[in-house]
Amino acid sequence: LLLAPTAASARPASKGVYAEAGLGGAATLGKAADWTQPGPALALRLGYDLFSWFSVGAAASASTHEATVPAPPSGEYVQLYRARADARLTARVQRIALYAEGGAGAAMLSSNVLEKVGVQEPGQRFALAFAGGGGLEYQLQNRHYAFGLGAEYFLAPGFDALAGVEVRLFLRYTYGGAR
Question: pLDDT tens for residues 67-83?
Answer without folding.
Answer: 988 888 788 899 999 99
